[in-house]
Amino acid sequence: MDGLKKVVEDYKELVRNVTGREFPQWPREQLDMAIRAVFDSWNTERARIYRRRERIPHDLGTAVNVCTMVFGNMGEDSGTGVAFTRDPATGHTGHYGDYLVNAQGEDVVAGIRNTMSLDDMASVHPKPFKQLEQNLRLLETHYRDLCDVEFTVERGKLWMLQTRVGKRTAPAAFRIASELVDEQLITMDEALSRVTGEQLVQLMFPQLDPDAERTLLTKGMAASPGAAVGKVVFDSPTAVEWAQRGEKVLLVRRETNPDDLSGMIASEGVLTARGGKTSHAAVVARGMGRTCVCGAEELAIDAKAKTVTVGEHTINEGDMLSIDGATGEVFLGELSVVSSPVMTYLDDGLEAGIKGQDDETVLLVKAVDRLLEHADDVRRLGVRTNADTAEDSKHARELGAEGIGLCRTEHMFLGDRRELIERVILAADDDEKQAALDALLPLQRDDFVEMLEAMDGLPVTVRLLDPPLHEFLPDLNELSVKIAVAEATGEEVSEHDRTLLAAVQRQHESNPMLGLRGVRLGLTVKGLFALQVRALAEAMAIRKAAGGDPRPEVMVPLVGSINELDLIRDEAQQIIAEVGQDKGFDLSMPIGTMIELPRAALTSERIAGSADFFSFGTNDLTQTTWGFSRDDVESSFFTHYMDKGVFTVSPFETLDQTGVGALVKLGVEGGRRGNPKIHLGICGEHGGDPASIHFFHHAGLDYVSCSPFRIPVARLEAGRAAVESEDGTA
Amino acid sequence: MDGLKKVVEDYKELVRNVTGREFPQWPREQLDMAIRAVFDSWNTERARIYRRRERIPHDLGTAVNVCTMVFGNMGEDSGTGVAFTRDPATGHTGHYGDYLVNAQGEDVVAGIRNTMSLDDMASVHPKPFKQLEQNLRLLETHYRDLCDVEFTVERGKLWMLQTRVGKRTAPAAFRIASELVDEQLITMDEALSRVTGEQLVQLMFPQLDPDAERTLLTKGMAASPGAAVGKVVFDSPTAVEWAQRGEKVLLVRRETNPDDLSGMIASEGVLTARGGKTSHAAVVARGMGRTCVCGAEELAIDAKAKTVTVGEHTINEGDMLSIDGATGEVFLGELSVVSSPVMTYLDDGLEAGIKGQDDETVLLVKAVDRLLEHADDVRRLGVRTNADTAEDSKHARELGAEGIGLCRTEHMFLGDRRELIERVILAADDDEKQAALDALLPLQRDDFVEMLEAMDGLPVTVRLLDPPLHEFLPDLNELSVKIAVAEATGEEVSEHDRTLLAAVQRQHESNPMLGLRGVRLGLTVKGLFALQVRALAEAMAIRKAAGGDPRPEVMVPLVGSINELDLIRDEAQQIIAEVGQDKGFDLSMPIGTMIELPRAALTSERIAGSADFFSFGTNDLTQTTWGFSRDDVESSFFTHYMDKGVFTVSPFETLDQTGVGALVKLGVEGGRRGNPKIHLGICGEHGGDPASIHFFHHAGLDYVSCSPFRIPVARLEAGRAAVESEDGTA
């Protein structure tokens, strides 16, 4: 309490000096308001710490009453209002606010009486209004930003109570930043620091049609953005079943738990009655990109009866609801969903983005364009994409990707090709295995040709096969049950199934994440990586023959020791040289490695001696540094951990700078010491996360790579990071 | 080749200067011998590098012939011999060797003619013998160690050809080191540096009875020490089946693969025809402490016919064989196995160790005792044990343990108590859960009372529950099959089984190593850690009431962030204070954490602020730093990796100093910065590994903790590390 007493004493003295009088005694409710006002405006870290550490008793109000010295409730020539220097919802120029005659501030905020607009205030109280207008202009020029203001008129005289830089919506942020540049109040660099990647994301999601007629049912917390429309279901099995037959469903639960995972995957969106932004539903939905509204406390859910009630409304299983993950609103019925004009602009350019849009939207799209262009001009970080198909590559290129930072080749081994991998695994001898690998070669080569064409002239980093081979086999449990049941009921079990079961049992791992995968697979399964490198070299030759400019790079996953990399590198270089000689082209290409194990980061100086590039795999690096299996922990104890404050954001969303970041820094320093020409990137999902991008910029990486949808965010944030000072402030 | 030519030229000049003549031309076989002799004696790093890098062509012999200037085959007054200054097999004082009249060195080595002893030489060639005796004394005094010598007598004149410090057996190493001290040739510190922990281990294993009659069948590589006697089986299923019915079996395979794991576990020992010391059989057997002889190439195994043939001998399934893992010898039939006198000494003291033993053994046991005592005097590292029972604790204390560094409480949750853990997991509500936990309390308390009593006056570090709870439930796969089969065949499935299956499915994890375990469990399952801390505090109170000196310590597993530790620490301190108040004792005890995740090492400075001690869990730290699941990788690709030279020894056997060691160093430095009073130890299996112990000494830890059997090794090696200089040389 000593600290707080000191603050109060300081404050007393301040007031004494300014006003020349001691603290008056006010009625209780005004004292309470005063305490709140002082502590709201006492906007420093110290005050926040006091507030958290000490419980502030009511009677302290006697000591800190300052702002009740003017009154808006002294008659018809008095009043109170709030004002913004521009519209905080749209960014529209010109002041904007609410005014109440003969009232105190509480009345405006409480919403008990109907307020008038500032324009109306002009006619009621013209003189103070004129002065207010002038003050608003002054404040904006001084703060060079949108300000919000509280003011009181006491017997015709205007008193400015407080001001601060005002909160705004995402569209307003972009428009205001751009227009303040036009008004020569700020520079383009400053404008860039006024918008965020998360605001841009909000503008990219599809939205509920703003013109559609809508009935608001209730409101919860905006937990994961986007719009979701579907038939209400109350349990996961139903969600899965209905989704499988083609229905769009919305999972509605009191709260979710790990058992709901399959239901959440099957649903368009998730709506819960309980839990905040760090609840299980919120964390998991954000992780999988599902729209989510959580903690809508008015929902009275009866899971047995399969109904949810809000006031007079009762919604049954199968009824339609629409949710807005950006606002937390829940609407009755099926609202149409429209794609965002900003997304159209990002995909197809400025012309397409503004075509047929109203003036406000045109201004918004142009502001986004202007700020993104500036970000591209100033950023030092390159932005690549994680993509495994030609289609994704093209889309990412439209969104501004400057190459592929991660092509996961395992995604090319699914579907029909699974059978070929199965043949590789079950092969009785090396000849059979080689035959199966040979059959994969042309398929893999065609994949690469398409991708190199889509990214012609830009780097395409191909990661050699990473997951354990048993991932391509049936699930041990399902297969065991199938065979055991067949045996018990006297059905015939095929020889193939038996062979398969033996193979699955043999290859089963307790912790596949830490097992026979990545470079370990390449060193153990003869011919596997060779096939992939050959396919890539041949694809490069085909593209060269067609007059293209293919720029493939070979990336080795899960390296922990330079010896592993050397063995693969030697083999790869030999194959590339062979194919080159055969086809008559110089096919030399960079060969590098993922840095995704703590040991790789710790021994990066050595490893760099054999690597043309490093790509930090921060997903796996987070898993091993923390000892977290993402598949398990996000849906089990993460909610608990956030509730208890172990961390405030999942380390899989935003890079854990203290722990994992320390390894990234060690990796960068060692890498540059070991090979001054080394190229350094990052291809974990953190590559699309704003805070993490700033960290990567300051850590000295050359590029980030992220999913196509996050490319614009990465461009913007890389630009913002570049205009920040070293310590991360603008 | 240039480097080699230079060496040869240098050598030529040297000989020219010394002998005053040019190199003579000798017959081919003498040239070959000369080359070998020169390069054997050219005992420098440079020569070794030349030998490896360049292939030495035969014709170079013309240039390097030096030592053939004397001949032992010039008649009956000539001869050649080898001599040791002491017996390299037993360490017995007095020279020892072989002599051949009228012969060259090759004849002695080749074993074609029967050699005579040096005593016989004394009577045949008394004059040169006397001079040899004198030289041997001189050499030992000069080198202050056992020397081996090659010499030739040419027409009655003795020529000393070469000498070097001689190889010796484990018993000889201890005796010679101790006796050289008595002879005042070396200090006790030097003596300590002349013996190794691995030699001590060899003396601790049971051995084949040296007096038993034996027929050597063949010899392979000494891959994993000890003696194993059992019935020969040729496949793992048979090994498992026979072992289950109580037979002692010996698994004989051409080579082993991961499928043989169950068979290796079931067998007394493993014998293979193929593969070296890094083969699958060798690595896995060493890992599990099984005796193993591998690469016995004479074995002709016919797995189908279930026979193995060596020359005229045919052994069938079920026949007895005996193997010696320290020598690689394979004997026919059943030899008796005797416990080692050194082990008896370690367990029960010097009196017991020498009682009834012959003179040689008495000298050996006394030498071991003397060197171990000195190691204890000079070592800075404390030596604790990993033990979970009072029995193990007592045994470890006899072997010299100075406390318990790791008590794994999960081992106290097996057997009948499993059912209680099952009740905790299946509890429908908090009350049911608490009831199950309450039932565990007295059992857990009794465990602790016994252990604190066994280690009275010494620290007992109790690790709170670490493994995932589902480890205490039935296996998902087995249970699924059981229920599916019952359903398919119309059998009734109990409600309990269904509940259990649901729980197992719900708690199933893809990578349990990285899942809900350790401190995460403590923070998620309410009351679990509280139960354990309460049991420990109550046990301490009971021991205090009984007049004992209990010194428990609470260790929190799998901490990655100081926040986790703080939450558990606060709760634990409150419980300890409560129990203390209740029982009327001061029960305050150190609370610390494992450092077993990279993040814990990287943020050790912060974590140290809340920890009284750190214990490095290098097993898990190796798993996460390398991304290796030990259960999976040791039996899958490790053999491959050692063959390819990715590493030469498993990082689970000897600490990977470059990678994992870097984190240990970071952890130590950060820990001491964050809390100068912090106590630092290590409780992974590396705590008993010689090379690792030296690393831990130099890294500045306070103690190592290892399994009881490795305590003497740790004492010896900690002493050796202390007398080494900083760079690890003696």
Automatic annotation (TrEMBL), chains A, B:
SUPFAM superfamilies listed in its UniProt record: Glutathione synthetase ATP-binding domain-like, Phosphoenolpyruvate/pyruvate domain, Phosphohistidine domain
Family matches, as InterPro entries: ATP_grasp_subdomain_1, PEP-util_enz_mobile_dom, PEP_util_AS, PEP_util_C, Phosphohistidine_dom_sf, PPDK_AMP/ATP-bd, Pyruvate_phosphate_dikinase, Pyrv/PenolPyrv_kinase-like_dom
One of the Pfam families matching this protein, by short name: PPDK_N
Enzyme class: transferase
Keyword terms: ATP-binding, Kinase, Magnesium, Metal-binding, Nucleotide-binding, Pyruvate, Transferase
Required co-factors: Mg(2+)
Residue ranges constituting the Pyruvate phosphate dikinase AMP/ATP-binding domain according to the UniProt record: 30-114, 124-173
Similarity comment text for this entry: Belongs to the PEP-utilizing enzyme family.
Descriptive protein name: Pyruvate, phosphate dikinase
